[in-house]
Amino acid sequence: MLELLVLACLLAVAHSLQGADVVLSCSFIEEGGGMMGGSLFARTPATLVLRDLPMSSDLSPETITPYNPPDEPKADDLIFEVVVSSVEIPEAESLLHADCNEQEVVCELSRYVPRGTEPDALPAHFIGSIQIEGGGVGLTLVLQTISNEKAESSTPPLMQSKLQLPLSQWGTLLTDAVFVVFSRSPSLAAPIGVDARLDCGYRQKDASPEQSVGLEWRWQHKGNGRRILDMRTQGVETDGGTEVQVEREGVSADSTLLIRDGNASLTMKTLKVSDEGTYICTISSGAFQTQQIVQLQITQPPRVFLSEKKVVFQDESPQKLSCHCERYYPLDVHVEWLSQPPSETESISLTEKASLSSHRQHNDGTFSLSSFLFVRPSEHPPGTTFTCRVSHFALQTPSDVTLTVETPEPEAGKYYWMVLATLVLSVLFLYQASR
Ligand SMILES: *[C@@H]1O[C@H](CO)[C@@H](O)[C@H](O)[C@H]1NC(C)=O
Questions:
Q1: Is residue 164 part of a domain?
Q2: Considering 14, 221, 319, 426, which has the largest number of Cβ atoms within 10 A of its Cβ?
Q3: pTM for the full predicted model
Q4: What is the DSSP letter of 65?
């Protein structure tokens, strides 16, 4: 995989100072590959070439080498070349950077039939889904084939064996990107209680201001799913109004932004643990209907504290330390105990000696957990420090709470005995006196 990505990075070409080509290794997915009892879908390696994407930042010429189409065009090659992009491809630059930063790019291509067209009608349509792992942009592109007029010369064009579509002289399928649904942050993590915006937008070739646009947001999680918002706008010009249905309290989308800017973002008020999941933004406009996924993860860091304010060994009996992790999400939390003897720099792990409570789940879906450790005076002289270290997904660095073993105060001990003796004597005296 790594080699593929490095190759793709090297294949990026700067046409001019503003434009660069992005070459992605993809899979072409077709239904019906399951003859041998395997998956229902067959995957064939394919390539997607996005030509001359506008790039704003300075690209160093050393990192880019020219993209060369195959020397000898082959009918089996599946190279989708987006020669013109009638729509702006948002965040195109992040595709180039992802390649060079060795982020994994998942690219899948498949056939697409726009509403109201026959499956074999020309121009043909394909859908390309490009997702950058670990953040970045998520794009779903509708590609429309461009007829290859110049090739009408002496020899008939080479036909792609699988698609039965004419290839360019250099062996690629020429396409135009006519519709795109995208998210600038397809994966989002947020704590409970805050408001969130799930980003989604679209661009369409020759969009008419009169046409109606449909937006649906669905939520899915662990086998459950439901519609969150459904919006249908009548175009700006006709001013036919907007119909909206909302099925989670506090969610909204802006119909003006939807028509004017192609902005389909969903605003959610006061996030809860139960909002976690996969959100599907579906845009229908004209003949096209396409989706983009946005993942929402709820991450709530634990509050970490010890019950004990200090450790003082008065005698030889062991003492219990309790470390509490409160109201965190998701469930996985890791508690370590460390001790560091006085005048030493290395810590010793005591985690194996500790015991854990079970997870407690609160009404808001967050969890709490406690860890207990018995410490003995014989093993831990005064000056020893104990650290409870908690690691959790929502914490960038582990959270530490520390205690130091204090020297018992002998004065305090003597004083205690004196008070006790005085008390006993007074009681005896009073008892005698009362008789
Ligand atoms: C939608 O609008 C919001 C608020 O102005 C903005 O932050 C966000 O980036 C926009 N998203 C898209 C996809 O245009």
A1: yes
A2: 14
A3: 0.81
A4: -
